[in-house]
User: Which sequence fits this backbone?
């Protein structure tokens, strides 16, 4: 509930503090005294946008502060925890508008944005925002009313969870189908590329090996000549090096006993001879293996040319990159085959989720449908009670495709004069009729819905007498279990107050400001008598007012 509202430097309010009761709070005052200004200030802490035009004193900032008691509202606690705001027994909401026009909002002294402020306010106050008279024509609100009457909360949570899963499954299925279309567009080209690489049938590092082989074959004659020359120098020339070394060894060996370093030198020369003999053998072997083959050169050249052509085509530099590309193309082609299996599986899962969602929607539909008859009857009775005996209320209920609220299209229809011509309420009902109709509906759903503080701004427009008295009775019934704040001009409603606040204008110097005070019992009787008979109430009006206050 709203415990206190403080207003400073707002339009014609210099400073104001209102301490509300937890029952029925009535605000009265002459037209233009500032009742709607107080409501406008309250709107600011509920998240409405502001401008510097609201400042009385352009040198000082405007401050609106509300203190709320959230009671046992678990949703409020969840909001505070999820937004990392202090959990306190009371919630202080403050809005400041600086002289430069910048606005700041605070919850429990922590800065917040307007979105957070609006979210919290919807949990604390119903100021014709979440349940505005204009929303009588809103399908979402109308379904919400039926769900409240049917206590569909648990079913709706289960349904919306299933609906979200079904929507996600549908989205995945659409993505798979789009992927399939794209893959099929690319499939022929991928197949051509893959076939081209598969036909080439390259092995790992093949092009690099071919390149080396071609270099060898191309220079084979020069290589063989160099090998032969080296071999001849070592083994078959007029004075082969191997033979010369052998002669040296023999010559030195005969004197090795006469000098201590000669045996070591002989051994080293012997090792060199063996190594040169081995080198000569390797040279001969390599020379025998090198054979120039024109046909092989041509074949390898063609193979290398094909490889270079494919490398250039695909923008790669090696045989292994071509092989990797071939593998990737193969995987893409396999995916085209696999994706149909994935689509079939996803279609089955999507169909199963649809049937589950549809079954849950059917339960919700059944529960809603059961409420329509009793709801129409009770609204009809209340409409007669609030001065609209000729008005007829009807709920149109049709099946539609599934959405987040189920499978039902709901429309509240209205006939003001029993003409038999039913039309949507927001198209045929007047403002006063809409207000009273909304009051009737709220009074029915208030016990089923966790409605916060209810604030009515002149909901009694266009009624008087017995109809006004009945509106007061309904509002008083609402106030038995929740806080009600009502701005009214009707004495029959004002007489039901638990706390009666009077708004007035006063002149201080050359400045007009709005003031407010809570009336005592005697002051209430006088104020209500003036509402009945004018500025100078008669004795009968005073007696009538006294009876209204006491009863």
Assistant:
């Amino acid at each position: 509930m709203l415990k206190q509202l403080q207003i400073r430097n707002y339009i014609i309010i210099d400073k104001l503090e209102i301490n509300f009761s937890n029952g029925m709070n009535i605000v009265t005052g002459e037209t233009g005294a500032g009742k709607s200004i107080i409501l406008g200030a309250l709107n600011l802490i509920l998240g409405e946008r502001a401008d510097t035009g609201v400042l009385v004193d352009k040198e000082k900032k405007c401050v609106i502060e509300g203190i709320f008691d959230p009671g046992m509202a678990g949703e409020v606690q969840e909001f505070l925890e999820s937004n990392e705001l202090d959990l306190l027994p009371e919630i202080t909401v403050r809005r400041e508008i600086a002289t430069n026009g910048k606005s700041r909002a605070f919850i429990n002294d922590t800065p917040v944005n307007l979105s957070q402020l609006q979210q919290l306010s919807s949990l604390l106050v119903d100021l014709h925002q979440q349940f505005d008279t204009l929303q009588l024509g809103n399908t979402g609100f109308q379904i919400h009313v039926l769900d409240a009457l049917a206590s569909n909360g648990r079913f709706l949570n289960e349904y919306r969870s299933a609906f979200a899963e079904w929507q996600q499954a549908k989205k995945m299925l659409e993505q798979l189908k789009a992927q399939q279309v794209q893959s099929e567009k690319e499939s022929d080209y991928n197949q051509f590329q893959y076939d081209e690489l598969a036909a080439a049938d390259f092995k790992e590092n093949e092009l690099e090996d071919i390149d080396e082989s071609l270099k060898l074959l191309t220079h084979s004659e020069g290589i063989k000549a160099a090998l032969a020359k080296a071999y001849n120098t070592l083994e078959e020339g007029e004075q082969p090096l191997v033979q010369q070394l052998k002669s040296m060894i023999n010559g030195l060996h005969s004197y090795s006993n006469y000098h201590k370093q000669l045996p070591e030198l002989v051994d080293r020369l012997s090792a060199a001879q063996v190594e040169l003999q081995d080198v000569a053998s390797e040279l001969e072997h390599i020379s025998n293996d090198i054979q120039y083959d024109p046909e092989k050169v041509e074949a390898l050249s063609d193979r290398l040319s094909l490889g270079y052509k494919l490398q250039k085509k695909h923008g790669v530099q090696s045989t292994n990159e071509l092989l990797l590309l071939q593998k990737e193309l193969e995987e893409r082609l396999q995916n085209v085959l696999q994706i149909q299996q994935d689509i079939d599986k996803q279609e089955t899962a999507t169909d199963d989720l649809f049937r589950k969602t549809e079954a849950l929607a059917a339960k919700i539909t059944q529960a809603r449908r059961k409420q329509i008859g009793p709801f129409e009857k009770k609204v009809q009775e209340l409409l007669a009670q609030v001065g609209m005996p000729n008005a007829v209320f009807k709920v149109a209920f049709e099946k539609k495709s599934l959405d987040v609220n189920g499978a039902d299209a709901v429309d509240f229809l209205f006939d003001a004069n029993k003409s038999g011509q039913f039309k949507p309420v927001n198209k045929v009902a007047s403002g006063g009729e809409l207000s009273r109709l909304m009051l009737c509906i709220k009074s029915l759903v208030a016990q089923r819905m966790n409605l916060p503080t209810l604030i009515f701004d002149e909901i009694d427009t266009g009624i008087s007498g017995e109809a006004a008295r009945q509106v007061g009775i309904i509002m008083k019934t609402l106030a038995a279990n929740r806080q009600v704040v009502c701005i009214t001009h009707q004495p029959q409603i004002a007489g039901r107050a638990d706390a009666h606040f009077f708004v007035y204008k006063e002149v201080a110097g050359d400045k007009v400001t709005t003031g407010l005070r809570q009336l005592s019992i005697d002051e209430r009787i006088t104020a209500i008598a003036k509402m009945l008979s004018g500025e100078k109430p008669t004795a009968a009006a005073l007696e009538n007012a006294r009876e209204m206050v006491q009863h």
Remarks:
- Confidence is low (pLDDT under 50) at residues 128-134.
